[in-house]
Design goal:
Helix content is about 45%, strand content about 20%. The two termini are about 50 Å apart. The longest helix is centred in the N-terminal third of the chain and has 22 residues, at about 80-100. Helix 3 packs across helix 4 (about 50-65) and helix 8 (about 165-170) crosses helix 9 (about 185-200). Residues about 1-5 have low confidence and may be disordered. The strands form 2 sheets. Strands 3, 4, 5, 6, 7, 8, 9, 10 and 11 form a 9-stranded mixed β-sheet that branches. Strands 1-2 form a two-stranded antiparallel sheet. The protein folds into 2 domains: about 10-85, Winged helix-like DNA-binding domain superfamily/Winged helix DNA-binding domain (Arc Repressor Mutant, subunit A), CATH 1.10.10.10; about 110-275, 2-Layer Sandwich (Endonuclease, Chain A), CATH 3.30.870. The protein has helices spanning about 10-20, 25-35, 40-45, 50-65, 80-100, 100-105, 135-145, 165-170, 185-200, 250-265, 275, and strands at about 65-70, 75, 105-110, 125-130, 150-155, 175-180, 210-215, 220-225, 230-235, 245, 270. It is elongated. It is of the alpha+beta class.
């Protein structure tokens, strides 16, 4: 996807965006030409617009260099396809921001990385908030996201109330876990593991890794093969455990994987369960 948020590209995108969205017929003409060329008559049959209206807008699109013609057929420039993709992603991102404006205005969104620019991936997400009937609705969503998966990656800023069920699931099941945790939370998880593993007759899962983090990361998320769950701090600097954004779409999951990859580079080395239980290199006790 072209990066419409670059300072160099954005003014040109704004001008083209206004030109296109101000005319439904122009967008439909470009849509007709997206996958193959077409004549004016073929565009007329596909769109239902009059020949004169299509011809007038065809001329404007040619003047703006969105399209070109060879004999009686019209084609899109490659850059036009990119710009159409930009319009699509811009609209999707705008939908997400509009639908969640109250929550986002209340939240501290301080994620200065490339992945956050792809907000269009969250268009089909749901905002889940705790309420008087279900005080733990949001934390329950997080708990479910931490169990029952093939792989899990994420940043988690606090020790979940159901940590015993969650961590024991990681240890005892065939799944891959890679988490970035604040130092204090990381130590709490390590202590639980040191107590739990001897009672459970050894480590059954080799693929659990923790990355202690001393950076001030002011948001939380988990991403797995099943879903993305995202939460923020409030503008007062407190983690908001009462609201999460969640999605099961592949686009949102890919967004989460990119988000994790960006922050993974900023932190130190991973610590495996073997490192935690056997710091002197004794190996697994099967």
């Amino acid at each position: 996807m072209a990066n419409i948020f670059d300072n160099e590209n954005f003014p040109n995108f704004q001008e083209n965006f206004k030109f296109l969205i101000n005319s439904e017929i122009r967008l439909k003409i470009l849509g007709c030409l997206y996958n193959s060329s077409a004549s004016i008559k073929e565009i007329e049959e596909k769109t239902g617009y009059s020949y004169s209206s299509i011809l007038d807008n065809i001329n404007k699109l040619e003047q703006k260099k969105f399209i070109f013609s060879i004999e009686d057929k019209f084609y899109l420039f490659n850059k036009t396809k990119i710009q159409l993709t930009d319009v699509l992603y811009f609209n999707k991102a705008n939908n997400f921001l509009r639908e969640n404006s109250d929550f986002l205005n209340y939240s501290l969104i301080d994620i200065n990385i490339d992945a956050l620019k792809d907000l269009s991936a969250l268009e089909d997400s749901n905002l889940v908030e705790s309420n008087n009937v279900d005080l733990f609705k949001a934390t329950g969503i997080f708990q479910r996201s931490l169990m029952g998966f093939k792989f899990l990656k994420g940043i988690f800023p606090y020790f979940h109330p159901k940590h015993d069920d969650i961590i024991s699931y990681w240890i005892d099941n065939d799944c891959t876990v890679e988490l970035i945790l604040p130092d204090a939370v990381s130590e709490a998880v390590k202590n639980f593991i040191r107590e739990y593993v001897p009672k459970s007759k050894g480590i059954k899962n080799r693929y659990v890794k923790l990355k202690p983090n001393d950076c001030n990361i002011q948001f939380a998320f988990t991403v797995s093969d099943k879903c993305l769950v995202l939460a923020f701090y409030t503008k007062k600097g407190k983690f908001n455990q009462n609201a999460v954004i969640t999605s099961t779409s592949q686009e949102a999951i890919d967004f989460g994987l990119k988000l994790f990859e960006e922050y993974e580079k900023l932190c130190g080395d991973y610590v495996s369960l073997e490192d935690i239980i056997y710091p002197n290199g004794r190996g697994y006790n099967y």
